[in-house]
């Protein structure tokens, strides 16, 4: 047993002494990744000069799926998008393992065409695909975890809402003339009501002017502040894009699960990552004229915040809005155990960019488990 530990220590020491190129070349399943990184010398140089990083390395099977994906970046040889995707697999910090507790991690994807999100602080995210870690090793600059699928870049708010089936919200934004404006904002937290929430007050909304509808929708967007569930404390107050206050509260239900409310609306799906921030799906439309509305923690569902509002017989604002074609990853995020400080670069490169959330169930093939290296 003693000799085995010595042998493992020697192997770990040898692996830690490897630079990135050597570490990748020693993994036959990463030959395609090595080939593609060599096609982007500036990106390879950037990654090689960074310290304390974690590389989520797609294996050859992942590349085969990507290359065969009809209309995908690799099949279309979209070099700009391919480089962005590869950057998105580099995490800021050396992470040896992941567990089911939430943590948010920045990636090396910088601001630009595929993200509109500044590095504000240390609770940043990266987005996951339905990937499984197949092997792990360390190298001079941090850790390499081999995964069997590519991570997916986050979409903008309206495209994400479509894929979540939130067609009423998308249609309302279009009617109000706000869809493009919301997608172009930087660093936003957006509370998007479910279709049923719009239907519950749909009769009243049908008589509202475009200005009234805009005022309601703007009250759902916090501009300049990206708030993930772990950032939220009971009594947190934030300001909407039309300069009106929102109150966020938390409640521990009978199952010991923390539930988040915005005014009187319950967050039913938290932490949906988008290119310019985060979306939380809520069960009621927020009313800028009723900013003191408080939640009923014991109710199965809250009444609309619009007193006396009339409902519609079906979904509203959905005419001409596309239906979902893909599945958006939502739900739990996973924490990572770091062995080192945040990454840095000697070349003065831009700070890494937060664009997603790691899902434990997805990353570990359906089980929120602890992975120790």
Descriptive report:
This is Stabilin-2. Keywords: Membrane, Transmembrane, Transmembrane helix. Pfam families: Fasciclin. This protein is α+β, with helices and mostly antiparallel strands and 373 residues long. It has two domains: 186 residues, FAS1 domain; 126 residues, FAS1 domain. Helices cover 27% and strands 21% of the residues. The protein has 13 helices and 15 strands. Helix 7 runs antiparallel to helix 8 and helix 8 packs across helix 12. The two termini are 18 Å apart. The N terminus and C terminus are likely disordered.
Q: What's the story with the biggest beta sheet?
A: 7 strands, mixed
Rg, please? 22 Å
Sketch the topology as an H/E string, one letter per element.
HHHHEEHHEEEEHHHEHHHEEEEEEEEH
Q: Enumerate how many helices there are, as a single number.
A: 13
The rounded distance between the terminal residues' Cα atoms is 18 Å
Domain count: 2
Mind telling me which CATH architecture of the largest domain this is?
Roll
Strand content: 15-25%
Task: Tally the beta strands.
Answer: 15
InterPro entries: Adhesion/Biosynth-related, FAS1_dom_sf, FAS1_domain
Domain FAS1: 17-151, 154-286
Pfam families: Fasciclin
Organism: Cyphellophora attinorum
